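Format notes (please read before filing issues)

Several people have asked whether sequences and structure tokens are stored in separate files. They are not. Every record keeps both together, in the order shown below: the sequence lines, then the token lines. Line labels are part of the format and must not be stripped during preprocessing.
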Amino acid sequence: MTDLEVETDPGELGFDQERLNRIDDRMARYVDEGLLPGWLAVVSRHGKIVHVSTRGRRDVEAGLPVERDTVWRVYSMTKPITSVAAMMLVEQGVFDLADPISAWLPEFTDMRVYTKGSALRPATVPATEPIRVWHLLTHTAGLTYGFHHAHPVDAMYRQAGFELFSPPGMDLAACSAAWAELPLMFEPGTEWNYSVATDVLGRLVEVASGQPFDTFLAERILGPLGMTDTSFQATGGALDRLAALYAPEPGSRRAVRHDAVGEAITRTPAFLSGGGGLASTAADYHRFTQFLLRGGELDGVRLLAPRTVAFMTRNHLPGGADLDEFGRPLYAEVPFNGFGFGLGFSVLQDPVKARTLASAGEFAWGGLASTAFWVDPAEDVTVLFFTQLMPSSTHPLRQQLRQLVYQALVSGKPS
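Then the structure lines:
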């Protein structure tokens, strides 16, 4: 699916065109200063695209420009797709949100929880609460990422070969089994910690559905939604459109090519990462956001009920807490102040606390290479931003983009 064209005069849908152009002017400076290789932004309202813009190159060294059909590594923007897959199985009655995952993944039957000590000599106790499906969807399972570098359990993940990515040759089943051997950081349900939980969720989908995870996504979500350029490997014509991956140079922060990591998407993956394995295009992911905005349906294809999507995009943290109150102060693809978490998405609770012009109820996520999206049901707006600079914490792109989009929204829903 490659169509990505402005469909109407922005003014007819409440956007000021001159103010929308401020997006381009501000983001272009990142390219002009060498801080980003290139980028693509898409803004839509009421299901119609009102702004598409690009700057810079998808491959600086080859001199190839960003095109509207450029293929991007979306990394953690895979997580919402995996979460939709899991909720499709919940709707079918295959499993329930409260079910212990050990019914399908027996390696998680007798989990232990870290209490004290070092990564080499940890003290643990038996978990009193099983990991449930809901815990995976909300990142409250007690799992972690090795790259956090903030806790002895993080170090244990690194010792097992899990830092930013998985060890070579390990498939989804092997990774899931390896994580189950490590202690939990906390009792499931008691804290929020960004983690490999969505990868375990992908394994749960695989086992419970009886299909390889990539097959399930292709046949049940990507194909039906027309997301034909989204997959775990860039092959064929997608290779010609694939953006190169960059990282900031120490000191100058200028974008420097990072093929050691970037070329992984061109190889057949052993590990089908539901937490970060997909590549996609702006047109494809735009279709996914429209599917969410429309309550689980697009172009006559319904994958989820409206009630399910509404449930997924509410804050599920206990007592209505935000991530600042319930989460560990570690890296994630969202600020913590004012943001809660649903089933696969951040959920904006308090725009004032978050210091943003965005609307309460906005749900969103982003990816390691600085890609991002959000859906604003209150204003019927969706926004996408694609680039390829890792990590996503390098520049305040998402905060700035929110300000730039909402300052351009000058009137409400047309009568």
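For reference, the curators noted about this record: The radius of gyration is 20 Å. The chain has 14 helices and 16 strands.
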